[in-house]
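Pilot study result, target chain (200 residues):
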Amino acid sequence: MSDMPDSLPYWIVGAVALFWFVGAYNRIVRLRSAALQAYAALDAALVRQLDFVQARVAEAAPAPAPAVPKGATADASLQAAASQLVTLLAATRLKPLDPAGIGALATALHVMLGAWQRLHPDAVVSFEADGTLSRPAPLAAREDAAAGSAPIAWPEPSAAAEIARNQFNLAVTQYNAAIAQFPALLVAWIMQLRPAAPLR
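Predicted structure:
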């Protein structure tokens, strides 16, 4: 008669499965945390861009006049777009990896940047994802920027926003790839972890 109980192989398989589950969960949580940290940097860079735009709008605010000048409607459009972006940034901070929230944030960002480019066509700076300057910003790149393949033309001449956007998109891509792999897919399904969306 053997000293080894019949249930020992089941306990070994159960222990291996438990250790695998914990390891896979920790990897997913680590990648999710990296995406959240990348969003925090992106949020700070977008707030800095907003501050720049709002300061320029406040500087250019004309004294009230009886007739509305043509540039006043463009200023109002830019100010409204900036206000909408502020609102969506605040909402996105609650759930930074929610695809619907990031999609709305991307739309508001492109509306504000479009209003800025209409008002100040020569005052936009485009950077590559690694921070290298590519100026002047190509106007035809708007369609590519919406698809995520081209850099965005930013109002403030700083590469921080484009670098932060690229780091966030990279972190989201790594997180999405991790929860889409077969064994980790089960862990993500059990823990109700959903895919995130990059900022295009």
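One observation from the pilot: The longest helix spans residues 8-59. A full batch analysis is planned for the follow-on phase.
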